[in-house]
Design brief:
membrane; transmembrane helix; WaaL-like; O-antigen_ligase-rel_domated; transmembrane
């Protein structure tokens, strides 16, 4: 594109307006033509003036030519163009849907609308709003849509009855939730929004649980309304099953750590911390052993982030152990541990082991193709291993591989391993900024916890809580893209670097370790005798 702008004091004839700046200089002034040095200087000034105008054009073109690569490109344009009242209303409704996803997933099917759980209807509204207000698909969203298409094709090809169709619809709604949340989160500020959404969801779920603890009475939907509910003391809130409630608590605890780190308001930060601490006794009262085991990963993560917490944990552990020994309660504690192991090996553990053996038998019987969605409960009745009446898979991996086959199971397992490996490698090899390091640690901790809590609940794929957790992890991954990390550090500057001293100590120790290994290798090489010259 030709730039026709000229400095003051120079003019061009219309017939010569298409000439280059250097040509105008040579023909426009006799003084400049007689002075090579003066002409060269003025040519440099003209080139400088035109170069000052061109970078903004290049930046503008680059932003719009490669819009999908820039996180929030369209959102920025909408702000610049002074959005209409309808656009502002849609953005507000998007934020409402985003915040309500964890809340309604915890609420589950306590109340239904036209026979459907409210979270399903919310997903439909959410998707429509996203299609109205968002145009760009990031790599994360594209991957989710590819998995959605592959999953739906396999689910329709494999045999499925009424139960299978219901499960496939649950999976479709879950994947659409993931796509909608990743497309909505086009600015780093959405990280604060997703944390507040989980905080609200945990508060809504914890209040009925506290009432269960106080009164000893469960909600009518507890364990599906079975007559054996009086035998159980575990709390479940809205979620029918205590294990699913524990799953929700563990998933929310990870987000609480991010929330109190990025939050500006001190009162909201205290709410994050208080909710996080309250989750521990509720997990004990829910009686989910695997969920409790997964909290070890979260505690280890906190000790890595906060050195003082590590010191406090060591001191408290040693103090507690010493108090147990001095008070003479060591035998009682060992008896309780032995009883827990006996209960696990005699009842729940043996029934689950039988179901896992039946799952392997069903997978082999289907030759790795899969039995079809929702067929596990019917097929397990024909399996050879005794399962003590347990017909639910109690294993997300078994549910996936038995229902949908080796192909889809391997693809999803590979994606999970790739996300874990990429996050851990970036934490180790690079020196990310404080905000990026927080999100990387969150993704790694989530990917370590998910395989454990996937074994906790009786069913996995049909629960909205599972898909909202997956969508939250996908939102965090959205902000680890190379074009989003700079905005991430700007948004949360000064809020994520509380542990810089311990981090510097860790980096110094790691560098000393690497240098020591390299020096030792060099010394061993130089100490070896050279080749004999005869």
């Amino acid at each position: 594109m030709t730039d026709n702008s000229m400095p003051s004091g120079l003019s061009t004839h219309p017939a010569t307006s298409t000439t280059t700046p250097s040509g105008v200089l040579r023909a426009g002034s006799g003084i400049l033509a007689s002075s090579d040095a003066g002409g060269a200087r003025l040519e440099q000034d003209m080139a400088h003036d035109s170069s000052q105008h061109r970078p903004s054009q290049r930046a503008f073109t680059r932003r719009h030519d490669h819009g999908p690569r820039y996180l929030g490109a369209r959102a920025a344009n909408v702000v610049e163009e002074s959005p209409s009242p309808f656009a502002r209303l849609c953005e507000w409704l998007l934020a409402v849907c985003f915040v309500l996803m964890p809340v309604l997933s915890a609420w589950g099917s306590t109340v239904t609308i036209a026979g459907q759980a409210p979270v399903r209807l919310l997903t439909l509204v959410f998707v429509v709003l996203v299609l109205i207000r968002r145009r760009y698909l990031s790599v994360v969203t594209q991957g989710i849509l590819v998995v959605t298409g592959m999953w739906m094709i396999l689910g329709l090809v494999l045999p499925a009855g009424t139960t299978g169709v219901k499960e496939l619809l649950c999976v479709a709604f879950g994947l659409l939730t993931m796509a909608a949340m990743t497309m909505t989160a086009d600015r780093p500020g959405w990280i604060v929004t997703v944390c507040r959404a989980w905080l609200l969801g945990l508060v809504v779920a914890i209040l009925p649980a506290l009432n269960e603890v106080r009164t000893g009475k469960h909600l009518p939907n507890y364990l599906g309304g079975t007559k054996t509910m009086g035998r159980y003391r575990e709390i479940a809130s809205f979620m029918v099953n205590p294990n699913l409630f524990a799953y929700f608590l563990v998933a929310g605890m990870i987000v609480m750590v991010v929330g109190w780190t990025v939050e500006r308001h001190w009162f909201v930060r205290l709410m994050y911390i208080g909710t996080f601490v309250l989750c521990f006794p509720l997990l004990v009262l829910a009686g989910a052993r695997l969920a409790l085991m997964s909290t070890l990963v979260i505690l280890a993560w906190l000790m890595v982030r906060y050195r003082k917490l590590l010191i406090a944990a060591v001191v408290l552990t040693l103090t507690g152990a010493l108090a147990i020994i001095v008070s003479g309660k060591l035998d009682d504690v060992l008896d309780e541990v032995a009883m827990s192991i006996h209960h696990l090996s005699s009842n729940s553990g043996r029934s689950r082991l039988g179901v896992y053996q039946d799952a392997i038998w069903m997978f082999v019987a289907s030759k790795g193709v899969g039995l079809g969605p929702g067929q596990f409960q019917d097929a397990v009745l024909l399996a050879p291993w005794p399962n003590r009446g347990t017909i639910d898979p109690h294993n997300g991996f078994a549910e996936l591989f038995v229902g949908y086959g080796l192909l889809l199971g391997t693809v999803l397992l590979a994606i999970g391993i790739a996300v874990l490996w990429a996050g851990a490698r970036r934490l180790w090899d690079l020196d990310p900024g404080p905000a990026q390091r927080l999100i990387l640690q969150t993704v790694v901790a989530s990917m370590l916890v998910i395989p454990v809590i996937a074994l906790a609940n009786s069913s996995y794929l049909k629960n909205p809580v599972v898909w909202v957790q997956m969508a939250t992890v996908a939102v965090f991954c959205e902000f680890l893209r190379p074009d989003a990390t700079a905005g991430l550090e700007e948004e949360f500057a000064g809020r994520c670097d509380a542990d810089e001293s311990s981090r510097r100590t860790y980096l110094e120790r790691r560098s000393r370790l690497v240098r020591g290994v390299m020096d030792r290798a060099q010394r061993s090489d130089t100490s070896r005798p050279g080749p004999s010259t005869g």
